[in-house]
Structures are given as structure tokens and as C-alpha cells.
């Protein structure tokens, strides 16, 4: 009797916590956020690709790699697609050296996952697009010391000229703002 | 009434009591809310990192600081209201006053019953003390001609009734607990019989039992005396009025012993009834006059009073803000942030929150006890300063003083016609 009110309050609170816990445990599960590429279905394994027309990767290539004709070779049997059909397209999945590359591995535009960093377009001089591609890391210099170090290239996009898409911190972008990007010197790591 | 007037003890805006009593609890409350919000609200999570990069951040910081200072000031104005709510004079504790009052009544009755029991047991042991010592001495004397305990009897002593009774008495004494007179009486009876049957000698269980029993009787008297004082002090600090069996009962019906619904309320009432019972001085009427005298003539003491009040305000504000936090967030997490909330977080707030609320309530009670004692002491020490300030002559004796305070309270507080002889300094 002495602790009646306290007991009633305590029991109500325990009942509320139990109800809340049960509600949290039985809530509908939210869909998992998409993790990287590809957009259309999962990546095929090399064994799965063997049965479809394919080319062979000459080197290891990461997602969003811009393919050139030199990156691929024809497999021994005939009937494989021409290298030119794949050139200029982007890989949706990572591919190891010697692995088959099929048309479902490709997409026409790169897909860059959103992060808290900012994207920066760095103009490339003619021919630099052969050396710089997705996954490359660059140091950028306006003078003797690097203004930005170890910047990751997310993709290389080309129209009339090619540009590297870099992912930088807001502070690094602020550093580069007053500089002319076409005059920046690039060192590939 | 008095708790509302106590707000006048606080210093002005920006003083110690403002920072400790209002700003500190508010900052802690806002920080706790920001931590939870940052986890769940994407708007807050994205806005917070951007604050530093905003163009007009100086303006924003200034506005936030002004808002914080204003909120803290509003909170400091509400301190007396929050204290009264915790005392059960307004708000939720008043609405639930009937069941809360029951608990306070049971607690008070429990203290009074324990006091009466401790008093009667102490008197019982004190009365029997000499007779018990005599019985033990006689037993020892009668056993001088008897053979001592054999080795086997000494080994088996603890399994005999006298042996385990003594073990129980030693256990109670070594743990600082009270020893009932019945147990001591049983121990004296059994040990004196054992002493009659066997020679005690200089060593062995019999002589140890005799010595320990005499020491336990002395200890039991002291322990009950300590208990009586502890209960008296607790009653005086935690409950209004005087105990029903007290010799110094006020004559006729008195409103002094009416309980409040909460512990805080009773501590507050104990403060006013203390001065009413002892001096017939009504603090509800005369506190602001006494405060004026303290501010003028006892600045150091007044700053101690201010510090104590700031601690009370801090604990009371922390109690209410933690209660708001605990009652708001668990339902809000289920309602608005069901997807992002984890069971651990929900239960964490649901379990730690009430523990914090309870802890802050105990802290508030403890600091209010200290403050109430400082207040009582201020009346004991400085009450005559009110008479000097009012140009009234000092009373000659304690009874005359009670009459004077009663007349003064009636005249000032209720406007009754009373005649006073003034004493003007030359």
C-alpha cells in the first residue's frame, strides 16, 4: 500500500518498454542500401561468363574503368565481339587480368557512389587519358609543393576532351578553387 | 509560500546561481537531446557539419548564444515553481498527492515507531544492566569450586545454547547492528548458568563469553542511544512538527505536524515548523525581513545560503529536465524514428533515464536538507537582527520571545491590532 503508486508507475513503464522493444524487433526491415555497381543485377563470375561471347582482360580493371581497345584481347576461338564494340564504355564490375569481359559487364556512363566528399573535374591533356583511369591516384601541383596529394580518380569522362573525376575533401576543393585546373601538374602514384 | 519567497535569495542575471542552477542543467539537457537527434534526424546530421562553413556563422552563433542565455534565464525564473512542484504544492505531485501522502505518513509512522521501540529497549537494557552484571559475577563466583570445562566441552561450547547465543551476539555487535534486550537477557541467563556449572579460569570460552557479554550490553545501550539520535535528527530534518510522544508538544491544536505529499515537501515544511515550534516565528511572514538583515549584517553567511540555494536549484532543474527527456524520447523514437532506432538505444534511454531521474531527486532532497539546515541556523543566529531593524526591544526570556514573535507575525502577516513599545537608538 505504501508503495502502490510507485509500483503502478514502475509496472506501466516496464510494460511500455516491453511493448516498444517488441515493436522494434518486429518492425519491417528497411531495404539495404545499394553497395556500389552494378545497377542491373549482380556481377557474373568468370565461370558464368565463359559460356557467353566475351573478350579477355589484359590487366586488372576496377569498376568505372574506361575501356580502350588495348585493354582487351580476343580469345582463341572465333565468334567473340570486336574490341571496338567495348572501347569507350565503362566497367560495372571489377575484372582481374585474364578474366572474361562480357557485354553485361559494361555500361555507357560511370556510376560514382555518393559520399561526404566533393567531386572535382580535372581536365586532361591529350593522351593523358591512356595513363589515367578509374582507381588511379594523383598528386596535383600548382608550384613546387603538392596542393592535393593522393586524390583518387573515380572515372575518366571524354567528349571533345577528356576529364578525370576526382573525389576530394571540401578543404581540398577550396584549395584548388583559385587555381587554373588546366595548368595543374599531375603526378601519377 | 516560503519556497516561492526563497527565489529572492538568488543573485541577479549572470550570477553564480544563474550559471549553476539554470545554465548548467540546460546545457546538459540540450547536449543530450542533440546527441539523440544527430543519430536520427538527417536534417540535423547534415546541418551540424555545415555550420562551420556557413557565411554568416558569427550571426548564427550570436543568435544561438542569445537564445541559450534567454532560455536559461526563463528557467531560473521557473526555479521556484519547479521547487514547489517537487514539494507537491503544484503540478503532477499535487494531483497524485493522496497516494503520495500515504507513503509519507507510513514513513513518518515507521520512524516514530522505531524511535519509541529504540527508547524503550535502551531503557530496558539500562535498567537491567546492573542486575545482569551481578548475575554474571555471582555465576562466576559460584563456579569457582566447580571443575573447569574439559577439552571436549570447550571444543563443543559453540554448539551449546550459550555458545551459539554468544556467537549471535558477537555477530550483531561486529556488524554494527542493534542487539535486542531479549537476546541479551537470554545470553546472560545461559552464560551465568554455564559459569555456575564450570570454573571460568583465565582463558577459555567461558571467560571470553562473560567479557564479551558485558561489552555487548554496553554496546547495545550506546547503539540504541545512537539510533534514538539518528531518528530524532531524521525526523527533524525530513518531517514537519514534533513527534507525538515529545515532551515539548505545542499547546492546543497545531498545523505544524501536517505532512506534505513528497519528501521535498516535508523537508520544506520542516524548515518552517522548526522556527514555529521553537520561537513561534513564522518564516512565511518574516523571511524577507530576515533576508534583509542577513544581506546587511552577515554577508559571508548570506553567500553560504546563496551557494546552498544554487545547489538546490541545480538538482531540481536537473530532475525536471531529465524527467522531460526520459518521458519524451522513448515514445518519440518509436513514433518518428522507428527505422533508425536500435533496441539497445531505446532500452538505454528507458532504463538509464528513470535511474537518472531518481538519482537527481535524491540529490535534490539531500541538497534541500543542507539548505534547510542553513536556513534554520540563520534563524537561530540572526533572528534578533529583525527586531533591531524594526526598532523593537529584545525579549528578556525565551517565553517572552515566543510571545513577541507570535504578536509580530499576527500584526505583520494578518494585520491584527497589536501594541508594541519601540526602542529608538539615540
Short description:
Chain A is built from 4 helices and 10 strands; from the N terminus they run ααββαβββββββαβ. Chain A is of the alpha+beta class and 189 residues long. Chain A folds into 2 domains: 46-107, Antifreeze-like/N-acetylneuraminic acid synthase C-terminal domain (Type Iii Antifreeze Protein Isoform Hplc 12, Alpha-Beta Complex); 118-188.
Helices and strands, with pairings:
The complex is a heterodimer of chains A (189) and B (426).
Chain A: H1 4-25, H2 46-49, E1 55-57, E2 72-73, H3 83-86, E3 90-91, E4 100-101, E5 106-107, E6 118-123, E7 137-141, E8 146-158, E9 162-168, H4 170-176, E10 185-188
Antiparallel strand pairs in A: 1-2, 1-4, 3-5, 6-9, 7-8, 7-10, 8-9
Chain B: H1 2-5, H2 16-40, H3 42-50, H4 57-77, H5 79-86, H6 92-95, H7 97-142, H8 151-156, H9 161-174, H10 181-197, H11 205-238, H12 263-279, H13 283-297, H14 299-335, H15 343-389, H16 398-414
Helix pairs in contact in B: 2-3, 2-4, 2-14, 5-14, 7-10, 7-11, 9-10, 9-11, 10-11, 12-15, 13-15, 14-15
- Taking the alpha carbons of the first and last residues of chain A, their distance comes to 78 Å
| Average residue pLDDT of chain B | 89
How many domains in all of chain B?
A: 2
Mean pLDDT of chain A: 81
The level of helicity of chain B is: over 70%
Strand content of chain B: under 5%
Helix content of chain A: 10-25%
Which structural class is indicated by helix and strand composition of chain A?
Answer: alpha+beta
DSSP strand tally of chain B: 0
Q: State the end-to-end distance of chain B.
A: 37 Å
Contiguous helical run count of chain B: 16
Number of spatially distinct domains of chain A:
2
Gyration radius of chain B (Cα, Å) is 31 Å
Most strands sheet of chain A: 5 strands, antiparallel
Low-pLDDT regions of chain A = 35-40
Order of helices and strands of chain A: HHEEHEEEEEEEHE
